[in-house]
Design a protein that fits this description.
The protein has 399 residues and is of the alpha/beta class. It contains 14 helices and twelve strands. The protein has two domains: 3-214 and 379-395, Rossmann fold; 235-374, Glycogen Phosphorylase B (Rossmann fold, 3-Layer(aba) Sandwich).
């Protein structure tokens, strides 16, 4: 049996926790001992607690960078996470090294954890990287841009990567680490595992023949969607209640006079009650997205990877309202397949206009159902088992 440090460092939301939880579940079933190091230990209790594995706080940078334009590459994502300052990076690397020394793992499995990757390089521990296309960029130099919807200065991506590599190398030098030649060196690990579908890859033109495992999840029972008792095409809305346009989105969708189910994680009971009408129900808990996908005329969300993937497999047309760059990139690429529309609710079109268009144009449902048919045989449990076997085989190799 091996002790495996399973880490998550950057990003927000339960999708990261669900992914590391699925991997830990597979490892434990094969006799290994997972130990979590995660960015959000409070939320982790609800997502990972049933596994019974130790949960530690991951070393993270708590600072904030302002004045930068939206991230146009993986390097620019890292700039917003402390990678403009070698002292910051070195401090977080040292903290990961201390945590590794405390846990004493035989290997590490990391999801969106670049600084943990740097620490693992210094220890020479076997390291596996899992994640969506966003957190597992292509191994090319420089890594491609993340904004295909607008032309970029040709030198911007290369310059940003050179700057971040210089910061990383300055951080590693006093620790005895070998310098990186490019950011792709971060992914020179035991193995990388793309836990997504081709249609949801943030880099759909990555070289070679990518091996897509599909999204990782441990099936857990979710309640059926409690639709309002009203006639008409059902609309599903999943948005964070802290989103700046949350109230406006709900108000506009209510104006369509269609049965509307609003899922707003964490919303207080009084705030939910204030939004409810005979045609609109508001809940703070998740529901079964496969059922939603079969019963809704359209689903509206922030374009989080897990949500879009589940609704995609159910053949449901979608309207995507991105909140972060990661969601905007996924939404832009997925909408190219004709099964979704993306909107900010600004400019000439409103949220309601976009939903009305997707409900009214049969082509969205045709494209959505065609994609779903491609994945009709996808078995999430079998996909997780295959990845578990692959990890297990690697971990048992003599060194």
């Amino acid at each position: 049996m091996s002790r495996i440090l399973v880490g998550w460092e950057l990003g927000a939301g339960t999708g990261h926790l669900q992914m590391v939880g699925a991997v830990a579940h597979a490892l434990r079933e094969r006799g290994h001992e997972p130990v979590f190091a995660v960015r959000d230990v409070a939320t982790a209790q609800g997502v990972l607690g049933h596994l019974g594995c130790p949960v530690l706080a991951a070393p993270v940078w708590l600072g904030h960078v302002s004045g930068l334009p939206p991230a146009a590459s993986y390097a620019e994502v890292l700039m917003r996470c402390g990678y403009l300052d070698a002292e910051v990076v070195r401090g977080v690397v040292r903290a990961w090294l201390a945590l590794i020394d405390l846990v004493r793992p035989d290997a590490v499995v990391l999801e969106h954890a670049p600084t943990a990757l740097l620490a693992a390089r210094l220890t020479e521990l076997p390291c596996h990287v899992i994640g969506t296309g966003f957190s597992v960029p292509p191994k090319v130099a420089p890594m491609p841009d993340l904004q295909p919807w607008q032309p970029l200065d040709p030198g911007r991506v290369a310059a940003a990567e050179a700057q971040v590599v210089e910061v990383i190398n300055a951080a590693l030098a006093p620790l005895g680490g070998l310098p990186l030649r490019c950011l792709a060196d971060l992914l020179e690990v035991e193995d990388t595992h793309l836990c997504t579908f081709a249609e949801l890859d943030h880099y759909p033109h990555r070289p070679g023949r990518p091996d897509y495992h599909g999204p990782l999840m441990v099936p857990r029972g979710q309640p059926r969607p409690p639709w309002p008792e009203a006639e008409g095409d059902r609309v599903y809305l999943y948005l964070h209640h802290g989103y700046r346009n949350f109230q406006e989105v709900v108000r506009q969708l209510q104006s369509l006079e269609l049965p509307l189910l609003v899922v707003a994680p964490g919303i207080m009971a009084d705030a939910a009650a204030a939004l409810e009408t005979p045609r609109c129900r508001v809940v703070a808990h998740g529901v079964d997205l496969q059922v939603v996908g079969r019963e809704a005329a359209v689903a509206v969300s922030h374009a989080a990877h897990g949500t879009v993937g589940e609704l995609m497999r159910a053949g449901c047309p979608q309207v995507l309202v991105p909140h972060f760059v990661e969601q905007a990139v996924l939404g832009w690429h997925f909408s190219r397949h004709g099964a979704a529309a993306m909107t900010s609710g600004e400019g000439p079109g409103t949220f309601a206009d976009c939903v009305d268009r997707v409900v009214g144009e049969p082509s969205f449902r045709r494209h959505a159902q065609a994609i779903a048919e491609r994945y009709r045989s996808f078995d999430a449990a079998a996909a997780l088992a295959r990845l578990g076997d692959r990890l297990d085989q690697s971990l048992r190799q003599p060194r």
